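Hey,
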Amino acid sequence: MLAEASRVQVGATEASVLQLVRRYDGYKWTPEPLPPRENWTDLYEYEYQKNLVSDYGYMLEVKPFGFLTVAAAQTGRRSQFDDAARAAKNAVPTGLRPILGMRDWFAGVQLSIRGGRVQQVSATVLVKGRSEWIGYEWEFANAMPHSEMQSKAFAIESAILEMEDGGGTEIQNYLTPRASEEEFQAARSLNAKCLNSIVGCKGLCDLTPRALQYLNQHPEVNSGLVPPKCQ
């Protein structure tokens, strides 16, 4: 699913991605609107964000243990299978779950549509690591998510994860069409072994080594990530 999403181009027609949406049982959802203009102290940022708002989007998900996303919650999309899978996982002692192939993880793709065309493609993977949750995201769009980043073609940030059973850290990779092939490869490289590892991955160094290696070699792409010390 992630590989197929990486081939979607910004500006492609909505019709061209519907087969991908159907293949992974994707669903349509509308994101939350921007706060009113009077609530913004930075009006330039408000105008910038207005141009990034999509009409709606499609969410594609792979979640073996009934993981509930924000989009799914907003649309009421929680199936009986999700509840049963979650209950089955929670009934198994925490220490036994990885040995039984029950490591909790989620993979999702969002295709944002504006004016009948793909405005943004993003992918997210969240996985329970050895001691905390670790996450990975890449986002491909014509513009960076914040005005102060707009001069960059590739940028890396981080976010704090707050999950129902603990917290962790997520690495976020932002790309525009001006990014190089090397940057695309760094941003979209994922160690998928973390999803079924018995011992669990330690952190971002295990999950996204290529992005962190690129960041170490090109510190100018750093927009807020405190790089972990990888061996």
